[in-house]
Amino acid sequence: MSLWKQWLQQPQRVWLRRALFQIHLWTGLALGVYIVVLSVTGSALVYRRELVALFSTPYPAIDSSARKLSADELRASARRVYPDSEIGRRQRGAHTAS
Questions:
Q1: CA dist., res. 47 & res. 50, Å (int)
Q2: What gap in Å lies between CA 7 and CA 25, rounded to an integer?
Q3: Which of 14, 49, 78, 90 is buried deepest, with most CB atoms within 10 A?
Q4: CB contact at 8 A, 57 and 65
């Protein structure tokens, strides 16, 4: 039986049809992933300001009229809040905030 007659009678059994189906399937999946990535990144760019506002850590409110505590007052305050913890030594410049 020729390829054309076999295609007309039982198209699902022709090797060319199966090969074309696999090519169509994997090309479609790859293009679908590509389109999803483009859509997500495009949406992130459009809503960039809203996303930054949603996920960023807010700055704490600073009272400009408050007085600065001395090291002893700070230790006493920390002991009141965390009585079971040990107070360690912290040097300036040991940690930089990003």
A1: 5
A2: 20
A3: 14
A4: no
